[in-house]
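Worked example 2:
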Amino acid sequence: MVRVVLLGCGRWGQNHLRVLSSLRDQGIIDSVTVVDPSQTARDNAHLADNTFPTMDGVEADLAIIASPAQYHAPQAHQLLSNQYHVLVEKPLGCSEAEAAQVIACAQENGRILAVGLLLRFHPAVELANQLISNGELGRLESLRFVRRSKRGAPPEGNVIESLGVHAIDLMCHFMGESDPSAVNVQGDNIEARIVLEFPHGIEAIIDVGWQTSQEIRTVTLIGSNASLRFDLDIHDRVFLISEGKEKQIMCKSSISPLEAELKNMVSTIIKFRSEQPWSATPDYGAALRGVRWTERAKQALAITRPH
């Protein structure tokens, strides 16, 4: 059985705790410990087996880092050095060099390191990849991602780093794990449009924003034969549009991406223990790519922000 420690029990940490407690009740993991220096956060961690202000004396197999972004890399480095397997929320680091150092630490200590790019585990994304592979869409011609949130922007937050990173990773994932050739950005820290240019003239247009009037989380893939559309808030179906007709296709699974991500991490640890082949999701090249292009998009934002 896998013992889990969750570092950080804020808004997203609470989501982790809710799913982890369900996995514990299903017998998939053994226990959940929350570590947070905030007494309020610890008091709100009702679903945890134990809570502590620091890692002192905490015994676990898997550490999940859901603390503020500036702590991700140093905490991951320390935990990997102490022989924990680690799932760290995005971003892996505040720069590509920092992220690379964390990956090197995982390899040096022979530990599993995963990054929380959980849309890769969305049932609709898995089905979309299947439809791309079997030729249902034909050749991809353009991609669109819209994520608008009614929530207020976090203090000192940047919408590209908070919301855009998932879109950047997903667009590259659909493009066969390709790197873009260029990125163009318009907007500001609250609302931005990111355009990723891929070879052969294919563009991925990403619109992300805080403080909007309604929640929107949609993905559209346009191919030479057909188009595909799905809502990231709906986990069990996609819509295929061909010759003016729309067809609903059901996914094989309907579990949430976070639950799928955590189950995958637990199964990877079990493979590790039994000396079976295992791989991190995303792989380390994709994890670095996400940091690299998010960093470039943020740099482009400072240049192209309208006056």
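The radius of gyration is 20 Å. The mean pLDDT is 95.
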